[in-house]
Design goal:
Elements: H1 13-47, H2 70-85, H3 88-105, E1 108-113, E2 116-121, E3 123-125, E4 131-133, H4 143-152, E5 178-180, H5 185-196, E6 202-207, H6 210-213, H7 222-225, H8 238-244, E7 255-260, H9 265-287, H10 291-301, H11 336-349, E8 352-354, H12 358-365, H13 372-388, E9 394-395, E10 397-400, H14 402-406, H15 411-431, H16 436-439, E11 443-449, H17 458-473, H18 478-481, E12 485-489, H19 502-515, E13 520-522, H20 535-550, H21 565-587, H22 591-596, H23 599-617, H24 648-664, H25 666-681, H26 686-693, H27 699-710
Parallel strand pairs: 5-6, 6-7, 7-8, 8-9, 10-11, 11-12, 12-13
Antiparallel strand pairs: 1-2, 3-4
Helix pairs in contact: 1-2, 1-4, 1-17, 1-21, 3-4, 5-8, 8-9, 9-11, 9-26, 15-21, 17-21, 19-20, 25-26, 25-27
Length: 717
């Protein structure tokens, strides 16, 4: 029973979070009203020249017995009662506000994030010599309005982080994180280097082919062969991962890697970590004059068969890092003490994100391998390993709403289901005995941005709900209260008819995301409705966000949506709708119990059907599709568009290389897989064991071994 994963006394967590959020809205309005009343009394007392009037927001001393008339005494009493009703938090916010305003009027800003100092200018000078503030401040002088703003919105980087989790945007790197993957590891590596060219920060996002996503090895079997490298990269061995990320130092502070993979996510992460460690071993061997000796060892190891190589020419900017230890593990070429030190240093430096969100797979995308219970165990084991090995810069889960939206959910349902899934993972990790601040900072989120109005505030609402729940419901620390998220523009909004217009749709969606201070952003290419995008269309897609960030004048300001009546209203409406959905899910026993009755899938399907009906009858206008349709088809017919597909030679090479890997490690794999099964049957950390297993076993071998212990995923009916 899936529901046993969450203790019975915790099954109402979503309803309780909803009630707390609704109560907080009431509390904020009460506090704002008291603050307005206190100021009205204070101003009146000032006009009456009250000789005992204290400093603003400060109570009278205990002795106020003077000869003041009855009206002044009543005003004093009303002022004191209003102050007494204000919480300590409210008083501190109001008292600190003038000082905070002053900081944003200074020429430069300074702040710290986890001990690192950041500095910059508070104003941007336009071509017209206008001094544009990076952070615009509310002009109201009313204490109630000021307090309402600080409790519901506040400035970027300040609780409840409605406007953003950092005080300012980064000046050293753009939010661009472009999703890429097609064909072989070498093909995708080439695309990565193309996307990284000229970028100050290397933000890679990896798309895997269906064979990898379903945990299989490439083979000549008809149901597998045709999908090798289709719409994603084919990787089945540690050597594939080494080729995939070669030429990028994975431990540099300006490099991070996201992997969009769920069912076999823990296996992919084990390969990624081994890849990063072996890169650092390779560097150590060069720096300590050990490389020639290592090369001789590798040549001897492969004297009777070809050594794995990079299949093709290295792309521009590729320095060869990561290719030296193809076919061998770093653990085999340095002593144990050196390897452990390199391993420790590597784990502490790695930056990136593993998606591994099995809940949305059951609800929307269908790429589940193992039963939900075992899949959640793997997620917990990954987080346990991350916590125990000081991987402070790595996100163990990307709680994903994107695929929920792509399956048909509207923006409010996407947000509600995603946050509900996030809180469910929180409850599961807590049930495993982890402390909230041990894992909450390692959770990230992933949303789709379409063109509906609600997408303009999806980040604002998510950050506010998460912050209040973390602080007040879970008593988490400030770092855990900050919800960070990635945006990908809507793939569902891309159309094959007049597909060049898709760039315009993507531009508007990207503008939503950047205005809302998303933490990273992928902009879809126009031809993704037809094929894996070409370099030309990817260049335009990346340029969309570069132009917004570099050329769009208002992007110099970092809180341009704050203060808008519409945005404020929309934020409140969406927040209220999310809480209503929380209550619906809670009535069904929580997220896991609702999944058993297919509640989430039904809601998504109903909303998908509604969208398609509106599109087909024309009541939802889509230019070039159902309105303003061109009379003559002047663009490329989708059937004639250039399609990116793996060649037969590439597929054959991948099948051959995986078979060679399995042959070379056959004996070691047998023992490693048996040890993995014993671990999975017991209570030890399965992910820690996977780190050793992936050195000698392929993806398909590992999933097959785990199936024998954990079983296969079966959907509730």
């Amino acid at each position: 029973d899936k529901r046993t994963l969450i203790p019975s006394n915790r099954r109402q967590y979503l309803a309780e979070i909803a009630i707390q959020g609704q109560d907080m809205d009431t509390h904020i309005e009460d506090q704002a009203e008291l603050a307005t009343l206190a100021q009205a009394c204070y101003r009146s007392l000032g006009k009456l020249h009250d000789p005992l009037l204290p400093e603003p927001l400060t109570p009278y001393s205990s002795d106020t017995t003077d000869d003041a008339d009855a009206s002044m005494q009543q005003l004093r009493q009303n002022y004191m009662q209003a102050l007494d009703g204000l919480s300590e938090e409210s008083l501190q916010l109001l008292r600190h506000w003038p000082q905070l305003q002053g900081k944003y009027m200074e020429a430069e800003y300074h702040y710290q994030v986890r001990g690192r100092e950041y500095a910059g200018k508070n104003f941007f000078t336009t071509l017209s010599h206008t001094e544009l503030p990076k952070i615009a401040l509310p002009r109201t002088r009313d204490w109630g309005e000021q307090l309402r703003f600080m409790l519901k919105e506040n400035l970027p980087g300040r609780f409840p982080f409605t406007a953003g989790v950092f005080p300012y945007r980064s000046t050293t790197e753009d939010p661009a994180r472009m999703f890429a993957g097609a064909g072989t590891a070498e093909n995708t590596n080439n695309r990565f280097h193309f996307l990284a060219r000229g970028q100050s920060a290397i933000r890679l996002s990896t798309a895997f082919d269906p064979i990898t996503l379903y945990g299989e090895d490439p083979s000549s079997s008809p149901d597998i062969y045709g999908r090798i490298g289709m719409s994603g990269v084919s990787v089945a061995t540690l050597d594939d991962f080494k080729r995939l990320y070669s030429g990028f130092d994975l431990c540099l502070p300006n490099t991070s890697v996201s992997m969009t993979i769920n069912g076999p996510g823990a296996i992919a992460l084990a390969c990624f970590i081994n890849t990063a460690i072996d890169q650092q071993v390779e560097k150590w061997l060069h720096n300590n004059s050990k490389w020639e000796e290592t090369e001789k060892y590798i040549q001897q190891l492969y004297k009777n068969q070809p050594q794995p190589t990079y299949r093709g020419q290295l792309p521009e900017g590729h320095d060869g890092l990561g290719l030296g230890l193809l076919g061998v593990s770093g653990a085999d070429v340095v002593d144990a003490e050196t390897y452990q030190q390199i391993r420790h240093d590597t784990l502490s430096q790695l930056r990136g994100t593993l998606q591994a969100d099995i809940l949305k797979e059951d609800q929307a995308q269908n790429e589940c391998l193992f039963p939900i219970e075992f899949s959640l165990r793997l997620m917990g084991d990954v987080q346990g390993f991350i916590s125990n090995n000081d991987m402070h810069n790595y996100y163990s889960v990307s709680v994903s709403g994107y695929h929920i939206a792509e399956a048909g959910a509207n923006p409010v349902t996407q947000l509600a289901f995603t946050l509900a899934n996030g809180f469910t993972l929180v409850e599961y990790f807590l049930a495993r005995g982890m402390h909230i601040d041990e894992f909450a900072p390692h959770l990230s989120f992933f949303f789709s941005n379409g063109l509906d109005a609600e997408y303009a505030v999806i980040g604002r609402v998510a950050r506010r709900i998460w912050a209040y729940a973390m602080r007040d419901y879970y008593q988490a620390n400030p770092r855990s209260q900050r919800l960070k998220y990635h945006i990908q523009t809507s793939g569902r909004s891309l159309h094959t008819r007049e597909f060049s217009l898709n760039d315009i749709r993507t531009t508007l969606q990207a503008l939503y995301a950047i205005n809302d201070n998303c933490n990273s952003l992928h902009t879809n290419a126009a031809d993704e409705a037809i094929t894996t995008p070409t370099e030309e269309t990817v260049r335009r897609a990346l340029a969309i966000q570069q132009i917004i960030n570099r050329e769009y004048g208002l992007a110099a300001n970092e809180n341009s949506m704050q203060g808008s009546f519409l945005i404020d209203e929309l934020t409140d409406l969406v927040e209220a709708s999310v809480y209503v959905e929380f209550e619906r899910i809670s009535e069904r026993g929580g997220v896991l119990a609702a999944m058993e009755s297919l509640y989430q899938r039904r809601r998504i399907q109903e909303q998908s059907l509604y969208y398609e009906q509106r599109k087909n009858d024309g009541s939802l206008p889509i230019v070039g599709v159902n309105t303003f349709v061109t009379d003559s088809d002047v663009e490329i017919d989708p059937c004639d568009a250039p399609l990116i597909r793996s060649t037969a030679e590439e597929k054959d090479a991948q099948v051959r290389d995986v078979a060679a890997f399995k042959s070379l490690h056959a004996a070691a794999a047998k023992d490693a897989l048996k040890s993995l099964q014993e671990c999975a049957a017991g209570e030890d950390n399965v992910f820690a064991k996977l780190l050793d297993t992936v050195r000698v076993a392929s993806l398909g071998q590992i999933t097959s071994a785990l199936y024998q212990v954990a079983g296969h995923y079966r959907r509730s009916m």
